[in-house]
Amino acid sequence: MGYLKIAEKRIEDEQNRLMSYIYKSTATALNRIVFNELLMVHQTELLDKKTGLMSFFEGMVGTRKKEAEADLGRLYNLYLNLTDQGIKPIADRMQNHIANEGNRFVNNARNNQQKGNASEREMTFIKSLLDLHTRFTG
User: Rounded CA gap, 3 and 109, in Å?
Assistant: First the structure.
């Protein structure tokens, strides 16, 4: 996600300016303002837009996996500085995504009950759930 890279750079630039030009007593307040303006003001859009969090989750498979992992890490590290206010919406969306994927596998298994060999269906179902688990735990 391009915006996160830009925000990360701007925050780094502000940290450097803080050390060079600003009194240490104003650093906390200024940091809060910078993080709020660069991240919190845009959080819903960043998480919900087409190229946002869902694209990271979808990218956790295949050729985009390393890029998606880097973007998720960047998102986490940037919003971690904002306590629960920043991390909770990300965690909630991630939990919902994983639960929806798991429910999709359960529904597919139910819909395919009459198709093929029972042990093959069970193995496919279990493999799908394990793949989902592995995708998000490494």
Answer: 39
Q: How many helices (H) and strands (E) does the chain have?
A: 7, 0
Name the token pair of 131.
């793949």
Distance CA 65, CA 63 (A): 6
**Per-residue pLDDT tens digits for 51-79:** 777 777 777 777 777 888 888 888 888 88
To which residue do tokens 């989750």 refer?
57
133: left (phi over 0), alpha (psi -120 to 50) or beta: alpha
Give the SS3 label for residue 115.
coil
* pTM of the shown model: 0.75
